[in-house]
Amino acid sequence: MGLSTRRSAATARGGSLTRRILLRGAFAMGMIAGTAGALAPILGKRAAEAPGTADGPAAAGTAKAPGTEPERYAERFAETYRGRHIQGTARGTRPARAAAARRVAAGDAMTVTAVRDVEVRIDGRPLHVMRRADGSYLSLVNHYESFPTLLDAARAAVDELGGAQLSTSPLHRL
Amino acid sequence: MVYIRKNQRDLTRTEKKRFVSAILELKRSGRYDEFVTLHGQYYVTDDEEGPRASHMTPSFFPWHRRFVLEFERALRAVDPGVTVPYWDWTKDNSPASSLWAEDFLGGTGRAGDGKVMTGPFAHANGNWNIRARVGDGSFLTRNLGRPSDPVSLPTRREVAKALSDPLYDAAPWNSTVAKGFRNTMEGWGRGGTVRTFHHNRVHRWVGGVMLGATSPNDPVFWLHHAFMDLLWDRWKKAHPRSGYLPRRKLPASDPQHGRVFSLHEPMPPWNVTPAQVLDHSRVYRYA
Ligand SMILES: [Cu+2]
C-alpha cells in the first residue's frame, strides 16, 4: 500500500517564496525612508489575555476594551557588524483574536498573525527573513536555528556568510 | 521488490561510487535542482498563514519520508542498484568519519568562504554548480562542527530520550510544542535559549549550504534525512500503541485548522496522506 508514485511533484510550483519576496519588496519602498528614529524593540510584549470578541483587526489608534486591541511589535536597527553594514526593520500587528486563539491552543504560541513586515539588508542586499510562531526569526542563510530579535538573526547571517555577499536574486533561482 | 537502505559506513567502495555517480547524473540532467527548489518552496514557517506540510508541523516526518523516496526513485531510474544510505550521526560524529572522505562526500570547507575543496562535489571538478543559492558563490560550502564556536552532534542518549516519549505531537502543532517526539526530534528550541537540537542541530553541525533553505544542495541532506526516517521507525516500534497525530482534521475553531495535516489529509505536492506513508516495508527496509 501507500507509497504509490505520482509524479508532478518537483514540477509543482508552490509560489510561496515568490509571494513573500513581493510583499517584502513593496514594504522596502515605504519603510526604509519612513519612520524616523529607532523604535525600541518591544518584541515579546503580549496583549492582555482577555476574551477576544473582535473577529478582525481593530483600527490602529481606536480605543478598545482590553483584549480587542491589536498587538503591535516593532524593531529597527542599522549598524556595522564585523565590517558589514546591516540594517533592519520589523513591524507588525497581531489581531486581537490572536489572544483568544492562543488560549484555545495549548502553550503560548502566537498562531494568528496579521499585518507584518520584515526587512533586513546586509551591505544593501536583501536578506530573506521569516518569523516563527514564538516571534523569533530565521533567515534564508540559517533556516534551522532561530533568533530572539531581528538584529540577532542579521548578525548570525553575517557570521555564517563569512566574506560572501548575499546573492542578488536568490529567490529567482529558487 | 523490497530494497535495502544501508548505514553509509557499511557501503563498499563500489556502492559509494555508484551512489555518487547517480547523484551527479541527476545534477547534470537538472532533476537534482528541482528537489532543491521544492524543499525551499515548501519551507513555510508557523508564523505564516496557510498550509504547512514540511517543517514546524506534525507532517515533518511523513513529508520528508516521501521527499527522500521521490529522490531515491529518481536515483534508481539512473541506476536501479542504488539506494539512499543513512548517516547515523550519533556514531559517525566527527569530520574524520569516512563519510567525509575524498571517495564519498568530500570534507569540510576551507577557512574564509567555506568552499569544499575535496571529493566529487568540489567545485573545481565542474560537476557541482549550485544554482538555488543564498550567497554569491556557486560552490558547495560546509563548516563541519563549526570550529570557531563548536557545535556537537546529538548523542545516542539524547536521541534515546526523544524516542522514549510515547506522544507523537501535540497542540499547537508547530515549532513551539514543548513535548512530543516530532518537535523534540525536529529540534526547535524556544525563543532562542537552547537554539537548536537533534535534526536542526545536525544541519547546524554541517553548516554551509546545509544550514539554508536550500539545504539539499549538499548531498549529505539525503543521508541525514534517511536516518531521521529510520528514527521515526524506531519510535513507532517502541510505541506500538501510539500513532501519528492529529488523527482527525482539526475543527474550524482550532487556529491550526487548514494549516497542519492530520492522518488522512493529503499533503502537497504529491497528494499523499500521512497514513499512506506510515508503512514502507514493502518498498524499502533499513539494514
Ligand atoms: Cu533536515
UniProtKB/TrEMBL annotation, chain A:
Q: Which UniProt keywords apply?
A: Copper, Membrane, Signal, Transmembrane, Transmembrane helix
Q: Note the superkingdom of the native organism.
A: Bacteria
Q: Can the keyword Ribonucleoprotein be found in this entry's annotation? A: no
Region ranges (Disordered): 49-70
Compositional bias segments (type: Low complexity): 49-68
Transmembrane portions of the chain = 21-43
InterPro entries in the cross-refs = GriE/MELC1_sf, MelC1, TAT_signal
Q: Say yes or no: keyword Transmembrane present.
A: yes
Which Pfam families does this UniProt record tie to the protein? MelC1
**Which family would the database say this protein is a member of?**
Belongs to the melC1 family.
Protein name from the UniProt record = Tyrosinase
Which species is the source of this protein? Streptomyces chryseus
